[in-house]
Amino acid sequence: MENYPTFIHFMKRYFPTFIATIFVAKISCLLALFALLDSFFVRATLSSQAKISAVCIAICTLVLVHSNFMVVRGRAGWVWVFVGLFVVCLLCVLPTIGYRPNRFVYAAGLFFPLLGLLLLNSKRHREMRSKLVEVRHQRELFIQAAKASRSRR
Question: Of the residues 67, 87, 116, 132, which has the maximum number of CB atoms within 10 A of its CB?
Fold first, then answer.
């Protein structure tokens, strides 16, 4: 039970940044998808737009969940999936300016990926990733020690 206050402190310190990054990523994906559908797929039927939306949302969700799981497990390199996702969302929204999109949606479509990149580069998120890597190393050492003690029996 001695690690319990440390876990609570860890969650209080890093969870808001962690969850904000997830929400910003999801909002960025949805705004980019909306901008693409509103600009490039205007003549597509509503059912085909719904199919495209469902597939894109499912793919984005799976990628986000898996990369978040890997970051939580101490694999800090998986944060580059988030960076790529934010850059792709930004690059999807930028060319839609020629189609005269809703100004608010366009501005939000530019704002949220940039906010996500800022959150990923924040001091707190970098600290969280380094602490999670330390936890992973400790977990690996514990598993190796357990295997060594089991093999001696």
Answer: 116
Q: Cα separations (Å) of 135 from 23, 68, 113, 130?
A: 25, 16, 29, 9
Give 153's pLDDT tier (boundaries 50, 70, 90).
low
Q: What single DSSP character describes residue 27? A: H
- Taking residues 104-124, report their average pLDDT: 97
Q: What is the model's pLDDT at position 4?
A: 57
Helices (H), 40-153: 46-72, 79-93, 103-120, 123-152
Structural contact between residues 116 and 28, judged by C-beta atoms closer than 8 angstroms? yes
What are 105-110's contacts with CB under 8 Å, separation 24+? 105/31, 105/34, 105/35, 105/38, 106/35, 108/27, 108/31, 109/28, 109/31, 109/32, 109/34, 109/35
Per-residue pLDDT of 46-92, as tens digits, reads 999 999 999 999 999 999 999 999 999 999 999 999 999 999 999 99
Give the phi and the psi of residue 123 in degrees, each rounded to 5.
Answer: -60, -40
The letter for the amino acid at 136 is R
Please count the CA atoms within 13 angstroms of the CA of 13 that sit on its side-chain side: 15
